[in-house]
Amino acid sequence: MTGRFDRLSLNLKSLTAEDRAVGVAVGAVLAGAIGLSVFNPLPGASATAETPAQAAAAQGTSSEGAVSATAEARREGFRVAPHRVKASEVIKMAESQIGVHEGAGGMTKYHRWYVSTPHAKATASRDGGRVAEYNGASWCNMFVSWVGAQVGAQGMGWDAYTVQHATWFKKSGKWGTTPKPGAVVFFDFKDGRSGGISGIEHVGFVKKDNGDGTITTVEGNTGNAVKEKVRKESQVVGYGYPDYR
After folding, report:
1. Residue ranges per structural domain of the chain
2. Residue 128 forms beta bridges with which residues?
3. What is the pLDDT of residue 29?
4. Residues whose CB is less than 8 angstroms from the CB of residue 35 and which lie 6 or more positions away in sequence, other chains included
5. Is 191 in contact with 232 (CB distance < 8 Å)?
6. Nearest CA to 148 among 21, 30, 56?
């Protein structure tokens, strides 16, 4: 659940995939050209509902900047360029995956997606491993990253290792103890919050606070599948808060 690599190094030498994609999108805005729409998922998925040019034309903007931002986002592994989304969009995407199981060798589409992204090289290098080692590895955080990339959730972060992902949220000032819908929830099932970030062993999304000391979640790599669960808040280390609107 925590990810294959265990060597910590908290400072990447380059910007994150999300930062690079956001930068290109901001450049398009400054040029007076933005057209975020519903574009193709990763290769092999269904056709677009609207082309970048059509989206830009509908908004009275140039399609060139929109195409550039979209192309860069897709190269990084996003389905659409990062932007502020509603928490309900993330929850809906996560729920749509409930029932997805591991295949042969413990593989899922979340593994295949993650290793296809340039960010996988950065995290593997950081943690002292190889990209190939992600195949068949614990995938709860790859699932969280995949969901964020599918909806273009700004401020979701991106990792395969729960401890590093939680550390990123904390260093970004997006860390807390309130179970908000859509928050990324990090667990230490033995020690909870007292175990600290270094003790994190699992991650998922908060669907709702049940108001009785439990939360309803959607998680990957739970019994080798994506499942909805009810968890005790006492098992939670903390929550990461994406930039929802």
Report:
1. 17-76, 87-240
2. none
3. 33
4. 52, 53, 55, 56, 58, 59, 61, 63, 65, 66, 70
5. no
6. 21
Q: Which of 203, 198, 109, 99 is nearest to 158 (CA)?
A: 203
- Asked: is 87-240 a CATH 3.50.50.60 domain? The reply is no
Give the SS3 label for residue 203. Answer: strand
Position 38 scores a pLDDT of: 27
Residues lower than pLDDT 50 in the chain: 4-15, 22-61
- In one-letter notation, the amino acid at residue 58 is A
**Residues whose CB is less than 8 angstroms from the CB of residue 158 and which lie 6 or more positions away in sequence, other chains included:** 16, 17, 18, 77, 119, 145, 148, 149, 165
Compute CA 101 distance to the chain's CA centroid, rounded to the nearest angstrom.
Answer: 19
pLDDT value of position 218: 99
Residue 50's pLDDT is what? 34
Instruction: Tell me what pLDDT residue 70 has.
Output: 82
